[in-house]
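Request:
You are asked to prepare a plain-text protein record giving the amino acid sequence and the backbone structure tokens, at your earliest convenience.
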Amino acid sequence: MRKWGRCILLATCDAELLGKILRDGKIVFEVREEFYKGLKMTVEEVIDLMEQSTIVNMVGHNVVKKAIEKGLIHPDAVLKISGVPHAQIVKM
């Protein structure tokens, strides 16, 4: 999590994706440790942080699935990069 004034950014990924590079055609998506690495948490703990955040960047089957189940994102808003789900939330 990073805070700038009233904005709270949460970057989260499934642990096994940390440090990986996803490629799909011209898309190259790096799950960089500098951006995504932080405390290791359960998916439920991450969902609680999503509800408090104004911007969320998430990648991975587990975290995206749970965000859909909790109604935080719509399934149609999910992109797949090399078969791996990626979604963002921006609260205005």
